[in-house]
Amino acid sequence: MEYRKVIKFGNSSHVISLPKAWTDTQNIKKGDVIYFEENEKGNLTISPRDLDERDSRQIVKLNVDGISIKKIQLEMIAAYIKEFSKLIFTGKEISKKSKELRRMLRELMGVEVIEQTKTKMVAKDFLNIKEIKLEDIRRRLDSVVRNMIIDSKIGEGKSNYQDVINRDYDANKFSYVSLRVIRRGMEKPKVRKQTGLSLLELSHEQHIILAMERIGDIAKWISREDCYSKLSKSEIAELNKLHEIVLENYITAMKAYNKKDYGTCCNIVSKNKEIQMKCDNSKNKLKSLSAFKITHLIREMSNDINILGEVGFMNCKSNIIKVYNEEDLPEENL
Known about the structure:
alpha+beta; Methane Monooxygenase Hydroxylase, Chain G, domain 1; 3 domains; four-stranded mixed β-sheet; two-stranded antiparallel ribbon
């Protein structure tokens, strides 16, 4: 570690000298621009060029030969969230996997295929992250997930299943771009300032987005099981009672989170325990394996809605307890 003494410069500024070894390594000359970035603790990071500009030059290459579509998708999502300028797929299997690759790329907001040959596909990221408002994206994701739950109503799987699948693409798209903004905000104080959120609030947003995306997936699984099963009328009626309660709890949870309603967020957690008990009691009225599977999925969905409530009350000020500075605490309470 090196030290530099701060020197007063004029009436309103202070200066420090830069180590010659560092300026030589970075090829910095007289008149060049130096960038400063302040982190959460107030420390400054000095860079010879804008960090955002440097990051935007990243290019990701992936050889798809011998790799499963699921593995390719995971690598693609990770690269997207970390922000690439271009994603280049190579390999002899490009033609065979082209349809799936394009399908997965459509789930990435702002990404377009700009070139394709028999052995190469190039996708470019046109998204300007500075134009993305996290709250707007979260609300759009909320609308998609809510409608996925509504369309996963038991007994209507065959007519609604394809609609749920289509909405799942939108849910993924909004989830990935949200996680990208959150990650960027956690890394870059400048981006975090643009979001208007603290590190803790960004962490809460991350938990909310992941829980919502999971709830959407479970709605898709419920609809799929319903689509390919033969449930009795009594089973459908019993399962829909549970489904209706869970849907209502989800809508309430999201409203409470958006409004920072502490009391309602706490009630969401209590409601989950009630739903778990209702699911257990319903098992005595169900006979088919599919009905048991759907009950289990409803329980899982309720547990993820419970996470929305938990994150919500951690992100809210309590309207029950009173907080004092130690010197202001009334003497009778000491």
